[in-house]
Amino acid sequence: MIGFALFGAGRIGAMHAANVATNPRSRLHCVFDVHTATAEQVAAAHGAKVAPSVAAALGDPAVDAVLIASSTDTHVELITAAAKAGKPVLCEKPIDLDVKRVEQCRRDIAGTGVPVQLGFNRRYDASHRAVRDAVRRGDVGALQLVVITSRDPAIAPMEYMKVSGGIFRDMTIHDFDYARFVLGEDPVEVFATGSVMIEPALSAIGDVDTAMVVLKAPSGALVHINNSRTAVYGYDQRMEAFGSKGMVQSENWRPTSLRRWTHAATAAQDPLLHFFIQRYAQAYVDELNAFIDVVTSKGKPEVDFEDGRKALIIADAAWESVRTGRSVKVTYG
Amino acid sequence: MIGFALFGAGRIGAMHAANVATNPRSRLHCVFDVHTATAEQVAAAHGAKVAPSVAAALGDPAVDAVLIASSTDTHVELITAAAKAGKPVLCEKPIDLDVKRVEQCRRDIAGTGVPVQLGFNRRYDASHRAVRDAVRRGDVGALQLVVITSRDPAIAPMEYMKVSGGIFRDMTIHDFDYARFVLGEDPVEVFATGSVMIEPALSAIGDVDTAMVVLKAPSGALVHINNSRTAVYGYDQRMEAFGSKGMVQSENWRPTSLRRWTHAATAAQDPLLHFFIQRYAQAYVDELNAFIDVVTSKGKPEVDFEDGRKALIIADAAWESVRTGRSVKVTYG
Amino acid sequence: MIGFALFGAGRIGAMHAANVATNPRSRLHCVFDVHTATAEQVAAAHGAKVAPSVAAALGDPAVDAVLIASSTDTHVELITAAAKAGKPVLCEKPIDLDVKRVEQCRRDIAGTGVPVQLGFNRRYDASHRAVRDAVRRGDVGALQLVVITSRDPAIAPMEYMKVSGGIFRDMTIHDFDYARFVLGEDPVEVFATGSVMIEPALSAIGDVDTAMVVLKAPSGALVHINNSRTAVYGYDQRMEAFGSKGMVQSENWRPTSLRRWTHAATAAQDPLLHFFIQRYAQAYVDELNAFIDVVTSKGKPEVDFEDGRKALIIADAAWESVRTGRSVKVTYG
Amino acid sequence: MIGFALFGAGRIGAMHAANVATNPRSRLHCVFDVHTATAEQVAAAHGAKVAPSVAAALGDPAVDAVLIASSTDTHVELITAAAKAGKPVLCEKPIDLDVKRVEQCRRDIAGTGVPVQLGFNRRYDASHRAVRDAVRRGDVGALQLVVITSRDPAIAPMEYMKVSGGIFRDMTIHDFDYARFVLGEDPVEVFATGSVMIEPALSAIGDVDTAMVVLKAPSGALVHINNSRTAVYGYDQRMEAFGSKGMVQSENWRPTSLRRWTHAATAAQDPLLHFFIQRYAQAYVDELNAFIDVVTSKGKPEVDFEDGRKALIIADAAWESVRTGRSVKVTYG
After folding, report:
1. Cβ distance C29 to C9 under 8 Å?
2. Domains in chain D: how many in total?
3. What is the ipTM of this complex?
4. Residue-number span of the structural domain to which C95 is assigned
5. Nearest CB to A326: which of D197, D242, D326?
6. Entry pTM
7. A: neighbours with 3+ CB pairs under 8 Å?
8. Domain boundary among D76, D96, D114
9. Does residue B261 sit in the same domain as residue B170?
10. Model pLDDT for residues B176-233, shown as the tens digit of each residue
């Protein structure tokens, strides 16, 4: 049984807490949150302790691993501290919004040998992973085109948007990581453009709510990503990989398999699952299992710090493309 | 160029007239209808003559073949006359509502050697035919279950229902023929039941508007047919053939391939094509081509008088099943 | 926390044990199985005790409820004992294969007031339930036709088939219950027929592996069920309800939402989930939650002893129909 | 009856000839092709004359309209001559590969008042048009994202590629026109990139076979186009329009509605219709009908010379984007 310390007990932290608590191979040992009441509530729900501090949690020998689900600006500090304490880390994306801080963190944890797994949920979704696996097996032949449709069901409040780092670092970063996952290589060029069509207040902070991206890989494979902050029919998550031997796609899931036939329409399906907590519920379970495997085997995570760093570098390049109107070369340092 | 005489210039006759006239291998020579104005209209639309009588049409050397689209009660007489005149016949289903008259007609035309093709449109639909072809090729292995969904978009007026011969002779007869087509053998047992759920006036004439049938074939394969006289979403025509190696299905067609995604529903498709004239438009063209092939090659029709006779025998057995509550053995004489 | 005694620790018992153990509102207190080693294994996996006997388990005050997943022939005795001990029961279908024993059990437990919930898994599947809910809300108007497709992925060994009670009591019984669930009324007539097309040895024991059923409800609504013991593409479970305002259907689920496009085929999906443990995994969780609600609230189960009894009565009538070739009137005593 | 002169009797010319000949409102009067044998063959098939020269055809009073299906480099000359002769023109896309020649042609025919309709087939496809109509009606609210998937089934021979003008002028030009059609406004920016992944010989002529484009409209709406010269599963043509109220899509058509279920895959559909002659067969008929309406009513074509000119301007900007790596501003002169 792997004992977990959970840092951050908000919505996504609470979900991770439940996954840790019900997983037969793990238990929730302690919870820390800057809002003590929040930590207490989540800890109580699963018979865990409230940790008085991060340091106390990291010093606790009953803590075998750390799950970071706190606000983005705390990730670097927590990853560094956990790595130095020798505790394997599962950290929600992104590592940080500032690539300089990410590079510093990378240097600080180098040599600790502590595994740091990043929480890119798409990688653990059975359908999106099946697309990648089919590509890797050669089912589509030489990969030529990838189309990623990724639309949120409803835009977040402006308070969140202001600290989000902008659409590419906050939302598209998942798609950048998935693009690397399915490509099996790192994009070398990125073009991005966007519009403000949903929340006019975004203009004042230089963000967009509607975006399109084109990536080019060394092989010549091209990737398209389109994003919207508000799809009224639900959380739209589709992947398509096309190559010399054919195509594979992962389609959306619905709450039920119901089809309705009326005088007005036929075979109409449910609206999509609302958002990531529902859509990727099983992915979060599988992500945790993969992390427990890593902790248990002292192995390497499939999706690690480097993946988080590279996705952020692409996101930065996307913003540069928006500013310059150019396709921007991406280098990973 | 095969010269056609058309008997019957109502809705379906007019459609056949247009198909004959635009087919590069045929021309509409003359039209006869007991309503002369109707005949005149259809003839004029395609530069054809109005025949003064059936006999005149059949005696006209420019008439190479006959298309019978008149009311059901005239079919036997017209088939017999045409066969005796040596003119190949394409006749709309059914041959007649009375199997005794059908048997008499069979005897009367025996020995003429004149091909009589029956207008069972499902056989010429590319999708339903693809189901049959897949079964015949062995794609589903040993055929075990057939499910036929066959629902009209809107019930006909009571005047029509009164002379229709009842649902099994009028509507299900298509499905009985399709069952034989896909089975490749003749059903030996039929169970049928029905309800009046749409048009209460049907009770008085002993008919039903909602029906289910189960057929058993000599091989043990079972066939289910379900019928409704009114499907508000359009003309519902689906075939399913299941066996030891898998299943094939033919789905409905829509006017467009549009899918709609709203807050209320996703991937909603168009209502179905309204009715047989639209749904089987291409099937009627292909049926005509098959008939022209027969006329030209002096060959045998793929669907002929015997198919019409057998489908009627099954329909009669279905009515007997409704009356007796028993599964009725079917023999074809 | 509801403490459970589990009777029967085979495949389906082990699944229920895991569901009880991971449910936040229940715990697995003890396990009894005639094969002690089996009981020990399941108990150990969830930190439960092995009960030395049924009586000991029923007499244990830490046991709040009983889950019966033992072989069918033990159900009546266990239900009766549990009811007399005042322990609410969740029992796998069927109650028994002999309606006389079921009637006796009904009398024996009458007056205990102990809730007995039957494990008809389709009722707790979100998609099949959505069909029922849509019908009940009037979305399809007056219900006219129900089509139930229910095919197992692979036939069980003959040892099982010999004690199964035959296809209608063993397999179709789920579909009979679902028919009653969606109809909202009890069928008054049943016609059934079948063939041996998969396992020739079934003929010797008077069973079939391929079957079709037609039910008629008092309203006139008609229900069709088709069954096969072996569908090579997986466990095929589809429901369709048609009425005066339209139709709803529940489609199959696949392991992933993958679609494959090759030179040979387009939009090909995964084979279906293999069998009931996978297909109805969430239904079993939801069924348990419904039962815990009943135990907690002292309420009535939505699906209870009467539902199990009535489904068996229909199954018996189906066998009578096969024997007699007649549509058999069903009365429920 | 509109009498047509057909210029160009190759594959697409022959198809147009058949459409003209079988349309009840038109007849094929004469055919001209630089290969006289080709002209003779097509003329003979439809009882038309071979025109000795373009001038003769244009001077023939029996010619009411002209259909241009000859090689691209002859379009400008033929359009100009026909317009000056007062004969309405239906011309296959593109007008020319050189925008300067297009501008000259525009000046040359200005003031003739002769309608010139361009053959952008997507506009007349019922499904793609239904997407546009839904957008125009406001069904998706404010239009935000358009995704156009457009892939050919098999790359053309290098001899053709060398004179094609490159992928954006030859293939994507259809998608540029469709983008304008669905947007209802002219794109102001275009980014394009491409790779050689199918036919290495394309590198030497500066063309690509795999491409992605992003357009931005004045409203802020973004359009993505992806192209491949070879999709092994057939001619892939899908449109998607997304906005504040939802989404509409047009899916591909297959030859039949067959679905196949085997141990390896479920609900597998046919490969797509091979190419444009099959996929847009009805669109070509409807395009001709629209043109006959224009000729008859002396009206304006829905898709005219200006549409052809603007699509070419976007294509030129796409090539400039490829060369410069920049998003290129588009102006229409």
Report:
1. no
2. 2
3. 0.96
4. 2-114
5. D326
6. 0.96
7. B, C, D
8. D114
9. yes
10. 999 999 999 999 999 999 999 999 999 999 999 999 999 999 999 999 999 999 999 9
